[in-house]
Amino acid sequence: MRMQAIIEARLNDAFAPDRLEVVNESAKHGGHAGDDGSGESHWHVAMASNAFAGKSRLARHRLVHAALGDVMPRIHALSLDLAAPS
Q: CA dist 46 to 19, 31, 57, 71, 78, Å?
């Protein structure tokens, strides 16, 4: 299974988001440290979920990292834009 599908499935299962966008940004980072040649090392996630209501930015990030669990070591860079629905 491709990394994007894994990320999307885990985040959908964990947070039932109102909005989820997973963008592979690996091509922007080709050749620099952390580029493992897989084309699946750098990611951006934008997500809105009720699970983030009342949580700090740090707490939201920790929840996402926990949901991704064992795939985190395969991700070199993960930028997160997380919010509660407005």
A: 8, 25, 13, 18, 11
**Which residues on neighbouring strands pair with residue 46, listed in sequence order?**
21, 81
Predicted confidence (pLDDT) per residue in 6-61, tens digit: 999 999 999 999 999 999 988 776 666 666 666 678 899 999 999 999 999 999 99
Q: Residue 44 burial (CB < 10 Å; 0-12/13-18/19+)?
A: middle
Does the pTM surpass 0.85? The reply is yes
Bridge partners, 43 (sequence order): 24, 78
Q: Read off the amino acid at residue 72.
A: M
Rounded to the nearest 5 degrees, what angle is found at the Cα of 59, between the Cα atoms of 54 and 35? 135
